[in-house]
């Protein structure tokens, strides 16, 4: 039982969660405050993610899923050798911070130094909707960050899918790698409410 759980956890660590940016990652940009670097530039953007993301399995596109709460995923990111994140918002609306916002977290290729990363605990498959508690918590968090960082406006709040155009191959087709936070998140409404 324990071994099965362990193997499941290891599998989750190996498969590509949404903000997997291993190509350029360095350990100094990941994990925790202790080994993440101070930002060299001012924050001017926010990137929204979903934990789950697509990958190719036996010639089919499947999604990694995102079981568990914010606490579970904070542990995941803080133990990950490459990835890092500033905030995690789970389905019950709980918000946890991980890497301090004045430090670089490795969550979006090419955008790490200037952006704040927020992970929504969601399958990212377009079928699971963001919960109302999660929506409200994320909206409040982004509003607070916009007040705190004058260079961040509503038009500087991006989906990961907006800023990363990479694809992967699956059964001869090209599939968008970063689809998050996906169709389960009403981005247009979110931006509208940010004013
Ligand atoms: Zn992402």
- Give the helix level as a range of percent: 25-40%
Termini separation (Å)? 49 Å
Largest sheet: 5 strands, mixed
How confident is the prediction overall: mean pLDDT?
Answer: 87
CATH class: Alpha Beta
The H/E string reads HEEEHEEEHEHEEH
The overall number of domains is: 1
Radius of gyration: 16 Å
Find the CATH topology. Lysozyme-like
Taken as a percent bin, the fraction of beta residues is 15-25%
Bound molecules: zinc ion
CATH architecture: 3-Layer(aba) Sandwich
What topology, given as strand order, has the largest sheet?
5-4-6-1-7
CATH superfamily: Peptidoglycan recognition protein-like
| Low-pLDDT residue intervals, each spanning 5 or more residues | 1-16, 18-30
Described by the principal axes of the CA atoms, the overall outline is: globular
Tell me the number of strands.
Answer: 9
The helix tally amounts to: 5
The structural class is: alpha/beta
Provide a descriptive summary of the structure in words.
The protein is an alpha/beta fold. The protein has one domain (2-194): Peptidoglycan recognition protein-like (Lysozyme-like, 3-Layer(aba) Sandwich), CATH 3.40.80.10. It is built from 5 helices and 9 strands, in the order H-E-E-E-H-E-E-E-H-E-H-E-E-H. It has helices spanning 2-14, 70-79, 132-148, 160-163, 187-194, and strands at 45-50, 54-57, 60-63, 87-89, 95-97, 115-120, 157-159, 167-170, 173-176. Strands 5-4-6-1-7 form a 5-stranded mixed beta sheet, sandwiched between helices. A two-stranded antiparallel ribbon has the order 2-3. Strands 8-9 form a two-stranded antiparallel ribbon. Mean pLDDT is 87; it is low at 1-16 and 18-30. Residues 18-19, 49, 160, 178, 180 line the site of zinc ion.
């Amino acid at each position: 039982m324990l071994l099965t759980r362990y193997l499941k956890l290891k599998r989750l660590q190996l498969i590509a969660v949404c903000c997997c940016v291993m190509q350029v990652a360095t350990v100094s940009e990941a994990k925790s405050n202790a080994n993440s670097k101070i930002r060299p530039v001012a924050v001017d953007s926010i990137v929204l993610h979903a934990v789950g993301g697509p990958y190719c399995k036996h010639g089919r596109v499947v999604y990694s899923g995102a079981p568990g709460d914010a606490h579970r995923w904070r542990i995941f990111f803080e133990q990950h050798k490459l990835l890092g994140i500033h905030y995690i918002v789970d389905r019950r609306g709980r918000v946890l911070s991980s890497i301090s916002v004045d430090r670089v977290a490795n969550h979006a290729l090419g955008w790490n130094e200037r952006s704040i990363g927020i992970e929504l605990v969601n399958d990212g498959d377009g079928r699971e909707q963001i919960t109302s508690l999660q929506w409200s918590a994320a909206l409040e968090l982004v509003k607070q960050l916009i007040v705190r960082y004058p260079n961040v406006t509503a038009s500087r709040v991006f989906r990961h899918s907006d800023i990363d155009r990479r694809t992967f191959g699956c059964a001869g087709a090209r599939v968008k790698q970063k689809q998050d936070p996906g169709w389960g998140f009403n981005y247009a409404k979110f931006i509208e409410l940010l004013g």
